[in-house]
Specification:
The complex is a heterodimer of chains A (485) and B (274). Chain A has 485 residues and is of the alpha/beta class. The radius of gyration of chain A is 26 Å and the shape is globular. Chain A has a 6-stranded parallel sheet with strand order 1-10-7-4-2-3, with helices on both faces. In chain A, strands 8-5-6-9 form a 4-stranded mixed sheet. Helices cover 49% and strands 10% of the residues of chain A. Chain A is built from 22 helices and 10 strands. Chain B folds into 2 domains: 115 residues, no CATH class; 118 residues, Rossmann fold (3-Layer(aba) Sandwich). In chain B, helix 12 links the parallel strand 7 and strand 8. The N terminus of chain B is likely disordered. Classes of the chains: A alpha/beta (485), B alpha/beta (274).
Amino acid sequence: MNTQTRIPALEIEEDFRARAHEALGDPQLRGNFRRAMDSLMTKRAAAFSDPEEREDLRSLGNAIRARALSKLPELLEQLDRNLTRNGVQVHWAETIEEANAIVLGIVNAHSARQVIKGKSMVSEEMEMNDFLGERGVECLEADMGEYIVQMDHEKPSHIIMPAIHKNAGQVGKLFHEKLGVDYTTDVDQLIQIGRRVLRQKFFEADIGVSGVNFAVAETGTLLLVENEGNGRMVTGVPPVHIAVTGIEKVVENLRDTVPLLSLLTRSALGIPITTYVNMISGPRQPGELDGPQEVHLVLLDNGRSQAFADSELRQTLNCIRCGACMNHCPVYTRIGGHAYGEVYPGPIGKIITPHLVGLAKVPDHPSASSLCGACGEVCPVKIPIPALLRRLREENVKAPDSPHQAMRGQGSKYSRKERFIWNAWARLNRSPALYRVFGFLATRLRNLVPNSVGPWTQNHSAPKPAPRSLHEMAREHLHKPSGDL
Amino acid sequence: MSDLFYNAVPNATRVAPPRHAPRQYPDSKPQRVYLFGTCVVDLFYPEAGMDAIHLLQREGIAVEYPQGQSCCGQPAYTSGYTEQAREVARAQLALFAGDYPVVVPSGSCAGMFREHYPDLFKDEPETLKQVQALAARTYELVEFLLKVCKVQLNDLGQPTKIALHTSCSARREMNTHLHARELLAQLSNVERVDHDHESECCGFGGTFSVRMPDISGAMVLDKTRALKESGAHQVVTADCGCLMNINGSLEKQHAALRGQHVASFLWQRSGGQR
């Protein structure tokens, strides 16, 4: 597959609502997501069969992440020192441009032409494939799901299962068209086809790129979990390994990773442990037979420090990227990952993306939730996602001259008209006299409600107030009105 | 590197609050309660509010309905208009000052009192005390009937099959999702049938239903389909937001099935007259 000439991704709608509308009308996509998410929810529930144990573990996970965040600057400096001592070269990047420049610098230093990449959401943030591709460097995805979406010029639709929006038939068709193999819907066969192509690429690649699940400050260890073996190949076979990760992934010590790993794999896939748990502590040492000669770590901020600066929003950085929130989200299940239009979809995407790209670029994200709470209920590190969504709504409608600047792009949904309406609503509900008049008019004029009442009647019959309000009926029934004003 | 944290407060990290211990209920029922009717019941389903009053009165409890009450403030709160929500909440607070239980025929409004008022007034120590006291004596109607009144219902109705829709607030904020099941199980002629994806949101979400009508509409269509396929003769729910959403959608579809507030269902089944 030739990634040197970049073919633009499929044309997608600019607006979140338009993309969601399109996805909702696609029965194939709806079915794929519904089935996949149902299966993941069932597996997670089975993996946490003891609710007491699950809740204790979630509390522990939350405490570990909170402890790490409470000393994030110190832990990052400790991580830097210990990785450097182990022979890993550590780079700091405040923006994705800086991160890409660092990667390109390493690529150029080795005159690399081929990069093979394990699964990494931070590399998606950086759009590393396109960045390197535009500079004549092939950057091939080695995770099977990522390999499939890259082949189809798409973006991942789920942070753990990038190609979950496709079923086996769609993948079979894609492989048939792009690789010239016979059409099959046999998942094992499809995986074998992909593996044969990738196996060769591992040996040809000049550089391997990977993500990081946990960066352990105390020992200077990069921990990486995966099920396909591609992670071990990209970090072990090519002569140079570049790991890229967000600054929030640091944990204090190895002991902390044990409960976090258990929470991660059970929440994500309902499995007790992944097939591979890689602990990378440095490049090949003298006398060792394998491993890369050079290991680099790129630590990326990209807006995370903005979340860090606010004690409520900081909880966003607890995330260990398990994807359970999207698996359980009734909105994600219906619109899929692409509708969000950003790297991180679903509930976690809605609360992290505003920090990465600014609230003004994703103004509809915080509103695209019924606040049903399913995400917060399953989050393994207890991020209060519904509360954070509500907070982002508050930031979204702030007046432009608001003194408190919590985030980039705040006030992007500020509307004088809407503020006026809510002020009027508040006045009405604060004043018993006004509310009584309103209740009287609403019930007596009930037949004047038009058949079409804005977006409500798109899905419902017109709402018709009752002939008399509870205020009136209760007053009559209870005879002596008390608390009457 | 410390530049990255130019603005950070180092000790501002939050740890999740401890899990709620199971709620402790008083040993005996009170002589008097407040009813917070909620704005949706007030204007759209007043009969549900009246049936709640009847059910409470049948337990020998005097019901007080402060006439100054309006809305709990939730629509503004979840829309991000926190200041407006706080002022409406403050107006309600003053009306429920007596030291007896506040019964609410809706999981989400009860959840607003119990879970979100303390957040709204976290910076006002004096008001916060009042709010915490209010939160401690706020009960969702079904919870109150079952756990505080310990009602024993006598089913006088014909055999029927119902589906129960539990609101997300009742399920995840109030932890009262099993109470309605337990109460309905007392009705000997009522068979409760499960429906597909029962624990999933109906798509209402307050202003979400008008801000994101496409997504909300897809959710309520799936919910009503599951309810219709359950074989239930009617739907029962303890939350009028969900009820308005589900019934509005069923009506739009010209479906025969309808939902009813649990207060009305319980009152009618157990022989109550209107």
